[in-house]
């Protein structure tokens, strides 16, 4: 656990869900709130926390062992991204290199896939190929999934962010990158009698870890933020306001302090996945991520 403070913000970061579960918060001014979200039996709402989470304990448990039910819904969205972006992500035999050739499925192209014709997939039965180039100067890439959002947003819409996380991680790993996934948010007015911004973040996957899709599904949606994310905010060394303030979009001046230091030292390439809640937004966010990667 790392807590840092600058003139503009307070940043709380944890490298694992275990940091908050096993953390010693006895005597902390926000101890009751932290325990409420991590150890409490408070009831969850389907639209706010997800259909598989009945209590806060369920959210914490799923972040440890994964949520296979949520993953099924996530997979449908990944399939949509695969089709829309036209990248054949099933080709796992591609060699690691700076650039690689990918296939694009469309209504017209160079080769006809007769099986798709028989299956009635006429809008994607033709294939053509082109070369996609990756930024070769950075071995380590951090995907920052912005998971903060207003309370009125349905949790199920936020699964698009999880789909992007899985999709990009697969692509980058095949391109020879070591990928870390971090979820986090930034808030304003979150602390009483303190006007600084408050960021909270947690590592979902480290560079050298294999991607556990069920845990990614469990830790990158809004239900996780509305439980573990709130607990992280309460780790700040100040008393928090009753409503936790308002969400502030992540940008050049609102990155968590710890993460910004790593970027400044050249330790990682930072890719921001914006908080999207529908298919069109996910496609735009994916294109924005490609732009940050320098993919042509």
Could you name the key traits of this structure?
globular, 296 residues
Task: Explain how this protein is built.
- The protein is of the alpha/beta class.
- The protein folds into two domains: 2-98 and 134-293, no CATH class; 101-133, no CATH class.
- The protein is built from eleven helices and ten strands.
- It has helices at 17-21, 31-39, 46-49, 56-65, 68-85, 114-118, 159-174, 213-219, 222-234, 257-264, 279-293; strands at 2-5, 9-14, 99-106, 111-112, 126-133, 140-146, 178-188, 197-205, 246-247, 269-273.
- Strands 1, 2, 6, 7, 8, 9 and 10 form a seven-stranded mixed sheet that branches.
- Strand 7 and strand 8 (197-205) form a beta hairpin.
- Helix 2 (31-39) packs antiparallel against helix 9.
- The longest helix is centred in the N-terminal third of the chain and has 18 residues, at 68-85.
- The two termini are 37 Å apart.
- Residues 87-100 and 130-135 have low confidence and may be disordered.
Structural class by helix and strand composition: alpha/beta
What is the rounded distance between the termini? 37 Å
Provide the succession of SSEs.
Answer: EEHHHHHEEHEEHEEHHEHEH
Q: Which percent range describes the beta-strand content?
A: 15-25%
Q: List the uncertain runs.
A: 87-100, 130-135
Counted by DSSP, the helix tally is: 11
Radius of gyration: 20 Å
Fraction in helix = 25-40%
Total of domains: 2
Largest sheet: 7 strands, mixed
**Mean residue pLDDT:** 83
Using DSSP, what is the number of strands? 10
Overall shape: globular
